[in-house]
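Researcher: Please generate the 3D structure of the following complex. Treat every line as part of one assembly.
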Amino acid sequence: MIQLPCPWCGPRNASEFTHHGEVTSRPDVGTATPEQWRRYLYFRRNANGWVDENWYHTAGCRRFIRVRRHTLSNETEATR
Amino acid sequence: MSQQVGRMRLGPQPGEVIDRRRAFEFTWNGRTVTAHPGDTIVSALAADGERVFSRSFKYHRPRGLLTASFHDPGCMVQVDDEPNVRGGHRLAEPGMAVSSQNTWPSLKFDVKAINRFAGRFLTAGFYYKTFMKPEFLWPTYQKVLRGFVHAGEISPDTPHDYYDKRYAHPDVLIAGGGPAGMSAAIAAARAGASVMLVEEEHQLGGHLRWTDPAAAAELTAEVAATDGIEVLTNSTVAGRYDQNWIAVAQRDLPHARERLIKARARTLVVAGGLIERPYVFAGNDTPGVMLSTAVRRLINLHAVKPGQRAVVLTANPEGDAAVADLERAGVEVAHVADARKGEDVVRVHGRKGVKAVELSGGQKIDADLFVTATGWTAPTSLLNMAGDVPVYSPTAARFLPGGTAGESVLATGGIAGDGSLDELREHAEATGTEAARRAAGGRYHQLAAVPTRNGGKLSKPKGTAATLPQLPVHEHPELFRASTHGIVDYSEDVSSKDLHAAVREGYDSAELAKRFTTATMGPVQGKLETINAIATIAEATGKTIAENGTTTWRPMYTPVSLGALAGRIFEPVRYSPMQPWHEKHNATPLVAGQWIRPDHYGDPAAEVRNVRDNVGIIDVTPIGKLDLRGPDVPKLLNLLYVNKWSKLGIGRVRYGVMCAEDGVVMDDGVTGRLGEDHYLMSTTSSGAANVWEWVENWLQTEHPDWQVHVTPVTTAYASINVAGPKSRELVSRLTEGVDLSAEAFGYMQVRTGRVAGVDDCVLWRIGFTGELSYELHVPASYGLHVWEQLLEHGADLGVRPFGVEGQRILRLEKGHLIVGQDTDGLTKGYSAGIDWAIKLDKDDFVGKPELVWQHENGGGTRLVGIQPLDGTVVPPEASQIVNSRGTIVGRITSSRMSPTLNRAICLGQVEADLAKPGTTLTVHLPTGTKVGARVTEHHAHVDPEGTRQNIDTPPSQPRPHATPVARSPIPASGRTTTIAGWQVDARRSSATLRLADHTLLAKVGIRAAHDGSIAQALGTRFGRAVHDNGSAVIVGSGPGEWFVLGSPGSQDKLLTRMRNLVEETGEFGTVIDQTHGRALMKLTGEHAADLLAKVCGVDLSEAATPDGAALRTSVARLVTDVVRIDENGTPAYLLHCERSSGQYLFNALLDAGNEFGIEIDGCPTAPTL
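Model: Done. Output below.
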């Protein structure tokens, strides 16, 4: 099990967190086309490399944190 | 008085591990055998003259002792009820019943040995080829093949053994307790590291135990004398995962059969030594063919003479030393064949044991023992798991580490190279020191990142990276197979011939041939056979070993029992405060997620009728409840719900539906406005946790500027729904401070007041059941009191409890949907029958675009009320609705027999064109029968006009009631006493480790900016707890989150004090009484941290978690706040969790504390903090 660098609690086992997937940005609700909206809902880069992810520290500080993770090596970098 | 047990037992040996002063008996296939303490099962049997221990997997060939270690493939035995015991490793114990496995009817005469003659049918891939067709015979094949399984037997009545679990955070973890591992451990510990030294066998020492027992004893003593080394013998490092997450299986503890240690090591040192490799030749699996290390173990450790007359094939100094040992033990060494001079073996003769050895020179020498010393295997698996790719060295005739395991994994000892004891020790010491240096860097970064330290200055570790010395690699002849074919994989019965056949069939890479033949896939997991298998494949393909490469070693290093992997079963369970009453009144339990709820109390239909006729009460505590405070709550509600919230007046309640961004219905519930900036949101019971996370997600990531504080209060309240025409009468008899008349307290309104003497109750007038009803939310500690008062004061009204099943019937009669039952993961808003609630004219809300498009384009099914034409037929839920062509056009989502209407009633999802009331549907029952049904006008089958909830009977006057009693979720057993209105445990304990319920302490929660003036005024930050004027403790429990703990009954005073403190700053802050929402307990004693390390994965070391540390983590899989608050120098921890899991957490801690002699302590009259 990997550890995630929680900027609040320090390194903790990943099992304490809920994965909220790659960081996405929400299109403007008033003007979004179905294509843009579904891209926001369902499309992810799924890169082999560095990815920005949202994690929720469910069993810890209960903050949503952003973690840069290398999907191949599982190296992580914290960003608050 | 020393005894000599067994006819093959030798006189005392310098390094022996047996205790000759004592002896005991056990049985082997029913026969009594005597053993000394320290004997393994197999050494005792070998001393007794036994040579055959099992029959092989496929051919049922007799198998004897080969390695005399954990990995001995022929020595798997059954011990009592435990199968697959490593007989070469497990110590014999008095009274054990040991039997051989995979033999029928007996070890001596095994019927299945006939397979030997059928050998040509059992070649590689036999199973894949033979048992494929015809498919209908698969069950028969399975039955036949089961009979050949080479495992033991377990009885279904086997009691569940205690398997333990523990977390550890060593700086340096060393796998292997031989001379290199011990030297590395001593060096690392002297460099300041905390070290965990793990050894597979029963003693430290490795090969020194038989090559130089005095040196082994000296090093072992030095390890024991060095501070900071935790030694685990009879334990295996089973796996290494990302970021040095390491699994250690610890065996045969006093309190547990096995224990899985999950260690997060900063540096891992792999010092697994070398494993001797068997030689492939005809008859190489005959009992009496042994490795040189096996005979040396037998002679030196267990004082067992391995045979009478031996032939030795040696290619190395260790083989030569074995000759000396044999001679010393009185074995007649008939011939020594020196492989370095080209001498070789052809085959051994004999079936149940070696009779003669045929050498390449043509001699045939009579012997009962043939010893081989033909080379070594480096068990590099832990390095491979860290990403290392081993490289074949033709010089050493074995694979060596590739040196690519990364910074945090080092190797030393025989795995890394050869050398004299001094050379190995020097390398290991340098490696241990470097491992400690690297760990110090890791520890510095960890400590710098945790908020729990007490603020002392952290100094950066000094020291520069050392260049590790290189161990030499000695020359060794490449010896794998003689001129004849023999067994490569003893566990799986795979011969070199099979591997040749596999290559001929095209499986010409190591990975393919391995899978096709199953070589290296048995219980030994490649430790004996990998190199021989690769060498054979290389030989068959005409490539070199280096070109072929090795197969991949994956976890586990050795097989680990499933019990050890399962460890303790941590499944949090949640109970409502009324659970003791439900249990006493024989409620049928319903497991709903973590909650245990009363499904019914015997007759759900009668419970339903009583609600419709009189009044019923139901425990609805699991309903999710979120306390929302702040000026921006309406913005939040408008964003998350599909309906509008801007104009909700104080005292009003509204039903709301939440959709996800894809427009799919996610949750529903009512939200009421209790004050200007104060709302209470309810969610479905199953959705409570998700909705909380959902709300936090939107607040934290999309709208961090909004001023809203969310506090989950699900279990801070016991929730009781009082439903039925007489509910107003009943509730008014116990309520003070609220006018319950129809005019003053209308439908969809909320009030706060005193119920049965309990202040701060929230009363909603809502109606899931369709009856006049009040939902009472009572401070949870008083839940049982209020429940009992309602039953007592409503006896004359005919009050009786109803369960979840009754409620489900009532709501179905009323046509109220259940999210997740009448909707699924594809049901968008307009398919859920909530069109009236969706306000597309709002600028924005979650899921809006999808609902706009569904509204414009249609699509999706519709939720409708359905009644079967034949009212006696209840179509099971999930029955399909079909059209005349048999196509599925809908489904029944809920169905029951209605006790009110005496007919079947349903809700269902149907395609939009079938949703018109009056439409006739065809329901396809699971039996195949089709029945007609009709779409009803409304979802509601009973009282669609909603008149029943508008009964305007006048309220009654409050009556005298019993004095409220507050109760903790942790039941007090035995003698109780009363403190500040709490009924608590009165017992006291002076045990060295004590667990005491402290739930009665006052608990006040505060939310504010983590770095603002409120934080300043509170005097502590996230991660630290401080004493406040000696009377309370302020805990920085989260970023911008505090808990204030005070003496029992002081919550009102604390609330006032804290509210004043917040107000004085003028900053946005929230103060909430959490006294009844949290279960709190205190663990005190020297072993407190050891106990917690069994249930909690956080580093509790003095450096990371000193006195005053506050953190939140998972304890026994439950989110728990942990506060270290030492008592006169004795470590003590406060642990608190949401109330409903209090009993679970308390029990989990007691279970973990058993091995330390934990006792329950009562609540002190004046709890010390």
